[in-house]
Amino acid sequence: MTKNMIDTKLLGSIIIAHLLLYITFQDLSVFWYLYSGAMLFLVSYAVFLGKSEKHEKLSYLQLFMYGILSGLLLYIVFRLGNAVLGLLPGGLDREVVLAYRRFSPDTIWHYLALVFILVPGEEIFWRSFVQARLMKKAEPKYAILIAAVLNTSVYLYCSLKIMAIAAFVGSVFWGLLYAKKRSLTIQILSHLTFDLLLVVFLPIY
């Protein structure tokens, strides 16, 4: 770690995220409404308090290729991981099915919220705000790990261990990608590719 000063804006954002996600997971019948609203609030917080950074300049083709291919790679990792779950004790393979049943989109507006609010919102908040602020105070490897733990922590309220595990793996992966490329466009394309494959086109259960 390079600095020990407490970042009150970052601390405040994590407290707010926990409060909002705790409320969100209390009633799954309105999950999509609450999660969309929570993410819009967190994005507003991040945009209002965050500072723009210089990003690596890439061509549109490079942005597209990095985004799509990284999202595909993470999907393959999850698919292979799911094949292993059935061999492990603890019933995590059954939790995968429960996660799909509880949180998969099933109306047009759910899909619109996923594409236009949740995917970009998670990358704006967790990577370009939370992780970016951590990277100003710590070495990238520590910032990535801490940001992943913080991101994972808000999923502890959903009562499914597999959701927390998935959040941690995804957070580390996208954290590495952000530290390397510093491109919000790549982050969103990668996350969107992954989510569409995992939830819409090629579910893993």
Structural class: mainly alpha
N→C terminal distance: 41 Å
> What is the helix tally?
8
- Residue windows where pLDDT falls under 50 for at least 5 positions: none
Percent of sequence in beta strands: under 5%
Count of strand segments? 0
Per the principal axes of the C-alpha atoms, what is the gross shape?
globular
> Which range best describes the helical content: under 10%, 10-25%, 25-40%, 40-55%, 55-70% or over 70%?
over 70%
Radius of gyration: 17 Å
Note the main sheet: none
Rounded mean pLDDT score? 94
Number of discrete domains: 1
Order of helices and strands: HHHHHHHH
Short overview:
The protein has 205 residues and is an all-alpha fold.
Characterization of this structure:
- The protein has one domain (8-50, 67-201).
- It contains eight helices and no strands.
- It starts with 7 loop residues before the first helix and ends with a helix.
- The protein is 76% helix and 0% strand.
- The longest helix is centred in the middle third of the chain and has 28 residues, at 108-135.
SSE map:
Blueprint: H1 8-24, H2 31-49, H3 60-85, H4 92-103, H5 108-135, H6 140-153, H7 161-181, H8 184-201
Helix pairs in contact: 1-2, 2-5, 3-8, 5-6, 5-7, 5-8, 6-7, 7-8
GO molecular function: endopeptidase activity
Transmembrane segments: 31-51, 63-88, 108-126, 138-156, 186-204
Keywords: Hydrolase, Membrane, Protease, Transmembrane, Transmembrane helix
